[in-house]
Amino acid sequence: MTTRTSILLVEDDAEINQLITQYLEKHDMDVVAVSNSDAMDTALSSRAFDLLLLDLNLPGEDGFSICRRVRAQQTLPIIIVTAKGEDVDKILGLEMGADDYVVKPFNSRELLARIRAVLRRAETRNRVGAGLPRQTYHFAGWRIELLSREVVSPKGIKVAMTGAEFDLLHALCENPNRILTRDQLINLTHGPTSGPFERSVDVLISRLRQKLEKDPKNPVIILTVRSEGYMFAASVTRS
User: For 93-129, what is each residue's pLDDT tens digit?
Assistant: First the structure.
């Protein structure tokens, strides 16, 4: 018997709560709906979930804070579902570690498609971490552990990465010495989408350079190719 996908929904609007719950349950997903961070923490401590759907405008702790906190504690996929549609909010949500961002009002079929896309990417990461070969990358003295999602510097120091930063670094390591456009990087990390996600690539590249490069203003690992995109210029080996 196939195990149903388990969704934790954090949404304080009762009508939207019911709408999302009923639609996803019709598509073979189990939904636990709560309205604030305290109830979310209780639910997370009591069972495992496959994905978190998170509103931003919540009573008490806001969604950005929740996203950052959950991402620091675990790799649970997170999709923000909110009425905040400004580009700056979308980019901030991705920087906090969200895997995707859906703006209200939304089409239920689009939400379902985005959930499935995020779950597919998470499944791929889990398969890699379950013991398949090539789960460690090495470049310029750095080590990337896919199983634990750890990034270790040449000095042996673990460098903290958000989920979005790690996924982008993973995509770059998979495609060394190849020019990748912003659209290609979006497809490799967030799936086919547009708008602020393109700008978020530039933000994430800048953040990776701050963490990986000796001189972020004159990078030698992640190069900008004018009018084309970016290239990961390091020699990458796998073990």
Answer: 877 888 888 888 888 998 999 899 888 877 766 655 4
CATH number of 68's domain: 3.40.50.2300
The answer to whether residues 128 and 146 touch, using CB atoms and an 8 Å cutoff, is yes
Q: What is the domain extent for residue 69?
A: 5-129
**Co-location of 69 and 161 in the same domain:** no
- Which domain-ending residue is among 72, 94, 129? 129
Q: How far apart are CA 64 and CA 152, in angstroms?
A: 27
**Phi/psi at 101 (5° precision):** -145, 120
Tokens of 161: 């990465």
Which H/E stretch holds residue 168?
helix 163-174
Total structural domains in the chain? 2
- 101 and 168 in a single domain? The answer is no
Which positions ≥6 away from 56 have C-beta within 8 Å?
A: 62, 63, 64, 80, 82, 84, 89, 93
pTM reported for the whole predicted model: 0.65
The dihedral region occupied by 188, where left means phi > 0, alpha psi between -120 and 50, and beta the remainder, is: alpha
Nearest C-alpha neighbor of 161 from the set 171, 147, 173, 151: 151
> Could you check whether the bond before residue 154 is cis, i.e. omega within 30 degrees of 0?
no
pLDDT digits (tens, 9 = 90+) for 132-153: 545 799 999 999 988 778 899 9
Q: Give me the sheet containing 179-180, strands edge to edge.
A: 179-180, 229-232, 222-225
In a shared domain, residues 17 and 109: yes
